[in-house]
Amino acid sequence: MFSINKELEAAKAARATLNTLSITTPKTAISATLRNANAAAVRNLGKGGALNEARVNVGIAISNLIDGSPTLERVDKAKAAELAAAKA
Known about the structure:
0% strand; globular
């Protein structure tokens, strides 16, 4: 399990990556950052609370980016999930 501070650091790094992400960005350039953010979100699901739904949505959106091509739809969904998580 990640500490909440580590999860926050990973989320900030993912946000910075997502803000510069486009459909032409090579997967190798974003993979490590997004995998770390995904791991932090998924591993902290057991902590419960209001953030769980946001963690699930972020985990799914990031997994879709990691596992497939960064299409415009996937990039937009990841950005929306991250934004919703930041508000939670």
